[in-house]
């Protein structure tokens, strides 16, 4: 994402979470560590802003790990090729400058990272799955300025994605006291990782 000349005569995008961590600009308290096989979620602040959580780290083995960040067109990231949840895969076994950080591009055929991020509202870009390491990453809805991310297993990812999409659709629908309560209950169930129960609540008739 930190490519030059996204737009002519405009500044380049800001630094990635990988670089900011190496520079000491992201403290340990602002990173969420999630091990493979675990299920966890967080609402990430935009990487270019201050916030409680700025990045998720998922260790894979001694040399590889994922970094997940929320890139939005604000601050030093005002000019971006795309915005949303960005997934980086880091290989510390590769010499620096030879591809040790790779963008897990959500749409590899799109040029210049123009569709690189993951978004819940786009079918082709609403989930990242690493079957080998049993990791699934699902972008969620926004809460205030923060964008949610769920880390889970491949086995649980189908039910989780189904529930997340239904919650998003309910959020967009016309509000009523009954729908507001249904939404609140569905989100609460989702955050306790009862994905089937969350879907049932979100999809039920008011």
Count of runs of 4 or more consecutive helical residues: 4
Beta-strand segment tally:
9
Average pLDDT metric: 91
Provide the gyration radius in Å: 17 Å
Helix content: 10-25%
The main sheet comes to:
5 strands, mixed
Principal-axis shape equals globular
Q: Helix/strand/pairing class, anyone?
A: alpha+beta
User: How far from one another are the termini?
Assistant: 43 Å
**Residue fraction in strands:** 15-25%
Low-confidence stretches: none
Order of helices and strands: HEEEEEEEEEHHH
Strand ordering within the main sheet: 1-3-4-5-6
Keywords:
alpha+beta; 5-stranded mixed sheet; globular
Write the layout of secondary structure elements.
Layout: H1 17-22, E1 31-33, E2 40-44, E3 55-59, E4 64-71, E5 84-91, E6 101-103, E7 128-130, E8 135-143, E9 146-152, H2 154-172, H3 177-191, H4 195-203
Parallel strand pairs: 1-3
Antiparallel strand pairs: 2-9, 3-4, 4-5, 5-6, 7-8, 8-9
Helix pairs in contact: 2-3, 2-4, 3-4
What does this structure look like?
- The chain has 206 residues and is of the alpha+beta class.
- The protein has a domain of 123 residues.
- It is 24% helix and 25% strand.
- It contains 4 helices and 9 strands, in the order αβββββββββααα.
- The strands form 2 sheets. Strands 1-3-4-5-6 form a 5-stranded mixed sheet, with no helix packed on it.
- β3 and β4 form a beta hairpin.
- α3 packs antiparallel against α4.
- The longest helix has 19 residues.
């Amino acid at each position: 994402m930190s490519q030059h000349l996204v737009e002519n005569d405009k500044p380049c995008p800001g630094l990635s979470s990988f670089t900011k961590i190496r520079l000491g600009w992201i403290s340990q308290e602002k990173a969420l560590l999630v091990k493979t096989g675990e299920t966890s979620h967080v609402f990430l602040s935009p990487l270019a802003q201050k916030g409680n959580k700025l990045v998720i780290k998922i260790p894979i083995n001694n040399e590889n790990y994922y970094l997940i960040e929320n890139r939005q067109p604000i601050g030093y990231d005002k000019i971006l090729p795309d915005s949303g949840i960005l997934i980086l895969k880091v290989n510390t076994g590769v010499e620096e400058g030879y591809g040790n950080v790779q963008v897990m591009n959500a749409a590899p055929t799109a040029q210049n990272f123009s569709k690189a991020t993951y978004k819940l509202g786009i079918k082709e870009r609403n989930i990242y799955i690493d079957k080998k390491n049993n990791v699934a990453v699902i972008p969620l809805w926004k809460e205030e300025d923060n964008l949610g991310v769920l880390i889970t297993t491949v086995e649980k990812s189908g039910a989780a994605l189904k529930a997340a999409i239904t919650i998003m659709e309910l959020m967009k629908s016309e509000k009523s006291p009954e729908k507001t309560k249904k939404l609140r209950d569905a989100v609460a169930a989702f955050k306790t990782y009862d994905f089937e129960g969350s879907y049932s609540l979100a999809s039920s008739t008011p």
